[in-house]
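User: Sequence recovery, please. Input:
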């Protein structure tokens, strides 16, 4: 058998999963990267938490390949992709083609944050573009949010739900058992580089108390060297970080320093 370090990263994870009882045919399937295997990223992310997910909104889009390589070299375990429609939020970023382009450039899990009105209309398209986790805003869904989460799961993706800082945490409490991930926004969705709103900390603490241990809690917006530790102490598993990484010339050093600051003090 080939040594694991001679295999591409995604095959290594499939082989490892198989030794833990993942169906062996998945190894031989050309679609092993797709379908149910996408949900298996969730357990790994949970195991490795706290994890820093770069928000590529702030990356250099004229050099996506180089940016992805630099992030992989820095040891990043997943990427956070912000989709904005100029309607639910005032800003416009990118849609399915850019998600698909990242999919071609990396085997890292893609965590897609949809800041769009009626996200249920586009779930399948983002799945086809290669999203591994799809998160929708509860304020933006046009149908029952539980149905949207179920649809995301049925496609084999991780299902996330989120709310803006001014929306009370009660609006996502009904989903603690059905969502794979709850994203707590610590800025108003729409732009990178905003100031962290501490209301997110109370929400994280409340969700950590009532949610099952397997529920992934993610925080997004204004997370930096000053705010990251409060987030992990409040129970965040996934730390979405844009400017505090991309404003630095050495992503690896920036991420290492953020990890050190994120350590929960005992
Ligand atoms: C804001 C986005 C964030 C943002 C984070 O609407 O969801 O992911 O890019 O960027 P920073 O870390 O700069 O606040
Ligand atoms: Zn985001």
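Assistant: Recovered sequence (266 residues):
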């Amino acid at each position: 058998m080939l040594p694991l370090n001679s295999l591409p990263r995604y095959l290594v994870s499939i082989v490892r999963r198989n030794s833990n009882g993942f169906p062996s045919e998945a190894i031989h399937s050309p679609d092993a990267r797709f379908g149910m295997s996408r949900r298996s990223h969730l357990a790994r992310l949970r195991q490795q938490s706290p994890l820093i997910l770069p928000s590529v909104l702030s990356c250099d889009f004229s050099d996506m390949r180089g940016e992805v390589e630099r992030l992989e070299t820095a040891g990043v375990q997943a990427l956070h992709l912000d989709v904005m429609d100029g309607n639910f939020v005032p800003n416009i970023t990118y849609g399915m083609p850019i998600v698909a382009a990242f999919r071609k450039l990396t085997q890292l899990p893609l965590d897609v944050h949809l800041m769009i009105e009626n996200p249920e209309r586009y779930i399948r398209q983002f799945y086809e573009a290669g999203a591994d986790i799809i998160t929708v805003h509860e304020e933006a869904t046009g149908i029952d949010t539980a149905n949207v989460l179920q649809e995301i799961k049925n496609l084999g993706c991780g299902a996330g739900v989120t709310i803006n800082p001014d929306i009370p945490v009660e609006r996502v409490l009904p989903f603690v058992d059905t969502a794979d991930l709850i994203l707590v926004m610590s800025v108003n969705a729409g732009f990178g580089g905003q100031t962290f709103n501490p209301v997110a900390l109370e929400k994280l603490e409340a969700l950590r108390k009532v949610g099952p241990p397997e529920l992934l809690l993610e925080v997004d917006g204004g997370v930096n060297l000053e705010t990251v530790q409060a987030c992990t102490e409040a129970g965040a598993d996934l730390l979405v970080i844009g400017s505090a990484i991309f404003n630095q010339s050495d992503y690896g050093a920036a991420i290492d320093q953020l990890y050190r600051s994120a350590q929960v003090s005992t």
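Residues 1-32 have pLDDT under 50 and may be disordered.
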